[in-house]
TrEMBL record:
Membership in a protein family: Belongs to the GDA1/CD39 NTPase family.
Region named Disordered: 609-639, 677-707
Protein name, per record: Golgi apyrase
Alphabetized GO MF terms: apyrase activity; ATP binding; GDP phosphatase activity; ribonucleoside triphosphate phosphatase activity; UDP phosphatase activity
Extent of Acidic residues compositional bias: 609-620
Chain ranges passing through the membrane: 522-541
Superkingdom of origin: Eukaryota
Keywords annotated in UniProt: ATP-binding, Hydrolase, Membrane, Nucleotide-binding, Transmembrane, Transmembrane helix
Gene encoding the protein: YND1
A GO biological-process term: CTP metabolic process
Length: 707
């Protein structure tokens, strides 16, 4: 067992799949090397930019051809992971494929078939730990994605390990998390004490474990807004424009002046550079004409928040969805994905440490969007806004910026830094020029991409939870690591384990992976064993084969005599073929007992079982040879005793087994003396002679003992 533990997470999104590789020290080694402060911290997770790889498109595109997802998609990602992880550590490395928005919209049957192909391909082509497909390969809901993101953000910011250094007041030390993609948006935060007590049933209970086994427990609110990602919001906005006017030309304040774009009735913008222009004109139902009026764009995108929807469980923020009241005095949010790209990649030219200031940000967006399209094109060529800004991003940024501003300030209620005065805060009018890290992320909102050079990704949160679950608990009564409904005590019914429940260490040979995780390899394994035995028998030669045959015959005939102990049962066909014996009859030794001295010299082979024989010689019990090393992680429902009672594929029939089989047929063997007395040693001459004349005796097998 090496120094490091590894983990692989495949983030299967709508546009592509990205593989993330992480590693952390084995707990025993981490404890040995840790300082007092580190012992009370979560496991240290490491990653590298070179350990990440993304390919397009997403696995949801294989819905109609699921059998292609392995060779045409996963193969590249798994090959990349295998190059970065030491070969000897691969069988100990868990593999997860967690799909998000793209797979959620697939028909159920297609979704199941794609996920099954993913698991089958990974199992058949790699040795990664993948014992339970339902747990390791699945489509996760938006709430789970948001919770993993919350774990990652607080892990990197230090909110878990050193709460005293992140005291935001009122006993609060964690940060809120905001994420926005193309289809959905998520929010996750720990409410203040008052709100947590009011809405206890709406919270998720999360348990972690530090290196020394100390449990950490948090109560987090998480929700997702489907259809509130930037791309879905854009489609809803265009549909509202089409429905509000019968004209084919629609003025759009969210496009730069003089820029036009054709759109479909579903609100999708058609690519003007496509070769299929005639086909596009047939699909297009209207044409957008940019006016470049950002203030009007803000006003027209505000209704997309749907704040007018009925709130059945107060309080609500947007879309009529319940969210506990947010105390921005103690809840400081970090925003990732679109919150980062739209606020920094253009208007801050990718400067990673710039703080967010609403006043300055809105001024810069207004300045950009009021330009005509030709001026923007010239700026793109000169890389005025950085090399990452192309024409596609420039077309979309005005709408995205307006949507981000509406979501943050009118939707979620984040105070407008630079305009609205904050309690107990310094003058932040020029906050955009300050270093966010130096400010301690204490503003109500800060967009981030990396913290301490590590990307804030929900996949990191998944691996932090998994590594934490591997820390041995301080006692048998300790509650498991994972998350579920907020219940007063115990483990809720919907509790989700990071990787299942650990199975006991069984042996140094990982047979469990062969028989349980990769059952397709069993036939090939036994064929290989047969070939090895066959070749070995040929190498032995005739005389040694005969000797080996005799020894094996004793093993298989011990305890299986017929009525006459001199008449052995017939050897097995396979042993006879392999070792050169006859399968048609038994060769016996001829014993001439004409004189008493020969009879006295004759000793019959003992047929009873020696009580000193070890039963484990022929079994795979825990005291004999044992199967498996680390069986990995089973499903949360798996029980240890069930795993231990796995079928034993290597155990041969023991002597006791054969005795019991004979007893079931009324043929239980007895001691030679109990059955026939002294006659078993000095058989009558008449019986010997009668056997000598038996037609079943082969002449070639006759021999005289006295010779």
């Amino acid at each position: 067992m090496g120094k490091w533990r590894y983990g692989v997470v495949l983030d299967a999104g709508s546009s592509g799949t990205r593989v993330h590789i992480y590693r952390w020290l084995h707990n025993a080694k981490a404890r040995k090397q840790a300082t007092d402060v580190q012992l009370h911290s979560l496991p240290v997770i490491e990653t590298d930019k070179k350990w990440t790889k993304k390919i397009h498109p997403g696995i949801s595109t294989f819905g109609e051809h699921p059998h292609l997802v392995g060779p045409e998609h996963l193969d590249k990602l798994l090959s990349h992971a295998l190059k970065k992880i030491p070969l000897e550590e691969v069988p100990n490395t868990p593999l997860f494929l967690l799909a998000t928005a793209g797979m959620r919209i697939l028909p159920e049957q297609q979704r199941k078939e794609v996920l099954k192909e993913v698991c089958d391909f990974a199992r058949s082509t790699t040795q990664f730990q993948l014992p339970d497909c339902q747990l390791h390969v699945q489509v996760i809901p938006g709430e789970t994605e948001g919770l993993y993101g919350w774990i990652a953000a607080n892990y990197l910011l230090g909110g878990f390990d050193q709460p005293k250094h992140h005291d935001h007041g009122k006993g609060h030390s964690t940060y809120g998390f905001l994420d926005m993609g193309g289809a959905s948006a998520q929010i996750a935060f720990a409410p203040n004490t008052t709100e947590a007590e009011k809405h206890a049933n709406d919270l998720t209970l999360l348990r972690l474990r530090t290196i020394d086994g100390t449990p950490l427990e948090y109560k987090v609110f998480v929700t997702t807004w489907l259809g509130f990602g930037v791309n879905q919001a854009r489609q809803r906005y265009i549909k509202s424009l089409i429905e509000s006017s019968a004209s084919k030309e629609l003025p759009d304040p969210c496009l730069p002046a003089d820029l036009t774009a054709q759109v479909t009735k579903d609100g999708k913008i058609l690519d003007s550079d496509s070769d299929d222009e005639d086909g596009q004109k047939e699909k297009a139902v209207a044409e957008l004409v940019g006016t470049g009026k950002f203030a009007e764009c803000l006003r027209q995108t505000y209704p997309l928040l749907e704040k007018e929807k009925e709130c059945t469980d107060s309080p609500c923020l947007i879309n009529g969805q319940h969210v506990p009241a947010i105390d921005f005095d103690v809840n400081h949010f970090v925003g990732v994905s679109e919150y980062w790209h739209t606020t920094h990649e253009i208007f801050e030219m990718g400067h990673k440490d710039k703080a967010y200031d609403f006043k300055t940000y809105q001024e810069r967006v207004d300045e950009f969007c009021s330009q005509d399209w030709k001026s923007i094109e010239k700026g793109i060529k000169k890389e005025k806004w950085g090399h990452k800004v192309d024409e596609d991003k420039a077309r979309e940024v005005c709408f995205k910026a307006s949507w981000i501003i509406n979501m943050l300030h009118d939707g979620i209620g984040v105070p407008r830094v630079g305009i609205e005065e904050l309690k107990g805060s310094k003058n932040t009018t020029k906050a955009v020029l300050d270093n966010a890290k130096a400010k301690g992320f204490l503003d109500p909102f800060q967009a981030v991409n990396k913290i301490n050079d590590v990307e804030v990704s929900w996949t990191l949160g998944k691996m932090v939870l998994y590594a934490s679950s591997e820390v041995p608990p301080p006692s048998d009564q300790a509650l498991a690591v994972g998350f579920g409904s907020n219940v007063p005590s115990g483990i809720p019914a919907n509790f989700q384990y990071p990787g299942g429940t650990p199975l006991p260490l069984e042996s140094d040979n990982d047979w469990h992976r062969l028989f349980i995780e990769n059952p397709r390899r069993i036939p090939g394994f036994f064929i290989m064993i047969f070939i090895i035995i066959f070749i070995f028998c040929i190498i032995l030669g005739k005389e040694k084969r005969a000797s080996a045959r005799k020894s094996i015959s004793k093993l298989f005939t011990r305890g299986r005599q017929g009525k006459d102990p001199l008449h052995r049962r017939r050897r097995g066909f396979l042993a006879g073929k392999l070792f050169g014996g006859s399968s048609s009859g038994q060769a016996y030794e001829r014993v001439d007992l004409e004189d008493g001295e020969a009879a006295n010299d004759f000793e019959l082979e003992e047929t009873y079982l020696d009580s000193s024989d070890n039963d484990n010689d022929f079994s795979d019990s825990s005291d004999g040879s044992r199967m498996g090393r680390t069986s990995g992680w089973a499903t949360p429902q798996a029980k240890k005793d069930t795993a231990v009672a796995a079928p034993n594929y290597f155990s041969g029939a023991t002597a006791n087994d054969l005795v019991s089989q004979g007893a079931g047929l009324g043929l239980a063997p007895q001691s030679a003396f109990d059955r026939m007395g002294l006659l078993s040693r000095t058989d009558s001459r008449e019986r010997i002679r009668s056997r000598a004349s038996s037609p079943k005796r082969g002449k070639g097998g006759m021999s005289k003992l006295d010779e």
